[in-house]
Amino acid sequence: MFRRIDLGVWVRLLFVTTLLAVNALPRELCSAAEKVDSETDFPLMVFNVASLQRLRDHADLMFESAERADLTERVDQWTVETLKETKGIDRRRPFGMMTYLNTDEFIRPMGISYIPIENLDEALQTLAYDSGTISPVEGEPDRFDIRYGESFTLRTRYLNQYLFMVGPDGSKSALDLRFPDPAKLTAKLSDRYDIAASVLIKTIPPGMKLLGLEAVKNQAMANLQQRDDEPESVYRLRRANGEAWVDILDKVVNYGEEFTIGGQIDPATKHSVIELDISGTSDSKLAKLFQNMTGKRTYFGNLVANPSTFTMSVSWQMEEKQRKQFVTYFEAAQRDLVKNASSDQADELAKLLDPIFQTLVASAETGHIDAFAQLTGMEQENFVLMAGIKVSTSRNLPSQITQLLEFLQENSNGNEILLKLDPDAERIETLPVHRLPVDSPNEESQRLFGESPQLYIYTTPQALWLSFGGELALDALKEAVAQVALPQTSQKGRNRIPFQFVTHANNWLTAADTENPSGFTERAEASFDSDNDAMTLEFRPTDRGVKLRLELESGFLGLMGRGISNGMENGFFRPPRRGNQEQLPVETAPEPPAVTK
Questions:
Q1: Is residue 75's pLDDT more than 60?
Q2: How far is CA 248 from the centre of its chain?
């Protein structure tokens, strides 16, 4: 929806949001013991790396997982030759960049790097990189400029055992800011993540935030008007989706406090985790928005944990506003279907559609979205894609769907798809299964489902089912229906995740092109087996907002290691040409402050 918004609007919103946050203190970033200091200039955003040593340790894990432990030595050699062993830099404390507003060029953010220091002289020589000239700033014993050539100057300031740096894009007064202690500022981020970025969105004056938000909302709503020849049902669904995103944006800006994204590797399990966390206060409208999206027990719980190539499960309770939007959509869809029918068929079609859409409307009014999709298979041409959605119980729904499909098939008017439709082709217990032959559109689809797949449509009083695939598709549908009918175990019944997506990379490899395997496919085959190939994405409300969590099992770390190893074998990490190999002396300067570990 937002792809149509004018780029200028986004730029203005970013500027306003940045301006409004300039004096905000990031709660998530500060340690619990740190008190608010009105004389400290806190940044708008922080990009933080927990430490150089942690990155080095993870490089060991990555190359070990890729069975290329020998490459760790090459990385160390590159560090020595290119980064001068990072001499003078503390490898065990966090480093990164803080973002402030450029006080000379008001609308442009300014990045200020922070590097932990063990020995100031050695750190300056490392940064000079044998080609820069280090000069003390007159009258400022804690400041040094490093000039590279005629036009590039790196300005630095030593404070709290950190070296703060700004490049040519920063103003001369940039280093006059009253910087917070980076170690304290990033304590929680460094403890929780290896690499992270955090932005604060809070304490925004109502009049100022209105300026940026209204610009985006007005542009968005203008793009949500009904287009020429757009069916009403499509318009209603598009508008409902757009309004939902506008509502979320409004609550994030008005009631959000923190936006954090970070990643971490667990050395014990070699699992990788990436998290996106948006939060406000526990009683804010932002928190309540996501808390209202609480998960409920899914009707398809017995299927969610089955071994599969991928499984997606959605089970959450909608707000009252969302329920009304879905009701409106179903009512519009029914009108569109009747409107598009020929005059001699419209009345009969309306009679057939009415009870079906009454069930759909009743499902929307209950407010519980409960659906799943699953791809299973381990051999080419034998994959099966299955999906189901829970509806309000309607005893007559199976016969109503059958009557509708028979009517459409008998009144196909030359439509090739409807001519192929075979209503009541099979039976599961006493209920009809409808079959529709489908042509595989490309080689990838044929490797998964074969050359002549079938789409099976099945309805029970409680759910609508689809199953797509070759010869195994019907049997897979029968098995799934039987599993759902069984009582759920206590563990499966406790599944309250509103959205979950799980995929297994090793299964996808069976559908790869075996005649012309790519380098990526070969690396993936070497990395994955059935015990290390899962990727899980979960959406969960928290007591303050929402968290999106992506977890990757150890095979993905091995795949990353093999990808980087391939790059190294092709020339990455080769030392660059060096200038003067002699160490450049620091020009005569006042004695720098003592540095303690």
A1: yes
A2: 16
Largest CA distance in the chain: 97
Amino acid symbol at 67: E
Other beta carbons within 10 angstroms of residue 193's beta carbon come to: 23
Q: Collapse the DSSP code of 370 into the 3-class scheme (helix H, G, I; strand E, B; otherwise coil) and give the result.
A: strand
Residue type present at position 198: S
- Cα distance between residue 78 and residue 74, in whole Å: 6
The residue assigned the tokens 């300031």 is 157
Residue 101 three-state SS? strand
SS3 state at 373: strand
Percent of the chain with pLDDT over 90: 33
Q: How many CB atoms lie within 10 A of CB 340?
A: 10
Contact 544, 279 (CB under 8 A): yes
Q: What's the DSSP call for residue 86?
A: G
**In whole angstroms, what is the distance from residue 368 CA to residue 317 CA?**
5
Is residue 298 within 8 A of residue 370, CB to CB? The reply is yes
Please state, in angstroms and rounded to a whole number, the distance separating the CA atoms of residues 468 and 481.
15
From 398, 407, 414, select the one nearest 351 (Cα to Cα).
Answer: 407
Q: Are strands 545-552 and 534-541 parallel, antiparallel or unpaired?
A: antiparallel
Question: Which residue in this structure is represented by tokens 């699992």?
Answer: 271
DSSP assigned state of 563: H
Q: What amino acid occupies position 117?
A: I
Three-class DSSP category at 132: coil
**Looking at 66-125, which runs of residues are DSSP E strands?**
95-101, 109-116
Q: Which residue has the higher pLDDT, 397 or 564?
A: 397
Tokens 């986004």, residue? 10
> pLDDT tens, 238-255?
888 888 888 888 888 777
Higher-pLDDT residue of 217 and 22 is: 217
Name the token pair of 315: 């089970």
- The number of C-alpha atoms within 13 Å of 187 and in the hemisphere containing its C-beta is 11
Q: If 0-12 CB within 10 Å is exposed, 13-18 middle and 19+ buried, where does residue 474 land?
A: buried
Bin 368: left if φ > 0, else alpha if -120 < ψ < 50, else beta: beta
Residue bearing the bigger pLDDT, 597 or 260? 260
H helix intervals, 450-545: 473-485, 490-493, 505-509, 519-527
The tokens for 451 are: 């050359």
Higher-confidence position of 11 and 384: 384
Q: What angle do CA 435, 439, 442 make, to 5 degrees?
A: 145
User: Taking the CB of residue 168, how many other CB atoms lie within 10 A of it?
Assistant: 10
Instruction: Give start and end residues of each alpha helix (H) in 5-88.
Output: 7-20, 52-65, 71-83
Helix (H) / strand (E) element for 243: namely: helix 232-255
DSSP 8-state secondary structure symbol assigned to residue 179? -
Helix, strand, coil in percent for the chain, rounding step 5: 40, 25, 35
H or E stretch at 330: helix 320-339
Q: CA-to-CA distance for 141 and 144, rounded, in angstroms?
A: 8
Q: What is the mean pLDDT of the chain?
A: 81
Top-confidence residue, 28 or 57: 57
| Mean predicted confidence (pLDDT) in 286-301 | 80
